[in-house]
Amino acid sequence: MPRLDDPAARLPLQGFGDGAPEWMAPMIRHCARCGGRLTYGPVPGDDRDRYHCTECGHVTYVNPRVVATTLPVTDDGKIVLIRRAIPPGVGTWAQPGGFLEAEETVIQGAVRETLEETGLTVEPVSIVGIYAQPRASVVIVAYEAVITGGEMVITPETLEVQTFAIEELPWAGIGFNTSLWAVRDYVRRVRPDLDVDRLGIEQSDF
């Protein structure tokens, strides 16, 4: 059985220390249970250091958030991508998607985010891949989706919404490794003749 690829594991883990990304660590200061001070270190009964309260002992786990995304595909096989209007990655291309809300399933979140960012209603039909980005503290789920309605529109979160044939994909302009990996994995399915690992540019830490 072939081994699953884990592209994020090939990259150096940068900007990460004391159990959390460096940008997140200043926000992990007070206990959500009692308001006491958090410290990072050994916790009884655990095999790794954790943030825990010096007053009540409550452990604060630093877990990644889920980002639900789609690769919408038109009837003629073109892929819908957005050019981002908001940080991070302003001006770069990515698949539509965003953070999962607490009351949603992953598919519901992917459908909602796609509608919000593109004006399209979609139906996910398969998982393209699941990708980790530890520095950003996210796990991205990417679905292939068929378009069932709506009309492509520019939204407050997008500079452009555009369809691309496989031969026209803006590889050099794809902004996130996780987006690059998802597009590569989808293209592998439909165009196995292409050497997609040579297309696009992986960044060292994003």
Structure commentary:
The protein has 206 residues and is mainly beta. The chain has 2 domains: 19-60, Ubiquitin Ligase Nedd4, Chain: W, CATH 2.20.70; 65-191, Nucleoside Triphosphate Pyrophosphohydrolase (Alpha-Beta Complex), CATH 3.90.79.10. Helices cover 13% and strands 33% of the residues. It contains 2 helices and 12 strands, in the order βββββββββαβββα. The strands form 4 sheets. A 4-stranded mixed β-sheet has the order 9-6-11-10, sandwiched between helices. A 3-stranded antiparallel β-sheet has the order 3-4-5, with no helix packed on it. Strands 8-7-12 form a 3-stranded antiparallel β-sheet, with no helix packed on it. The chain is globular. The model has no long low-confidence stretch (mean pLDDT 94).
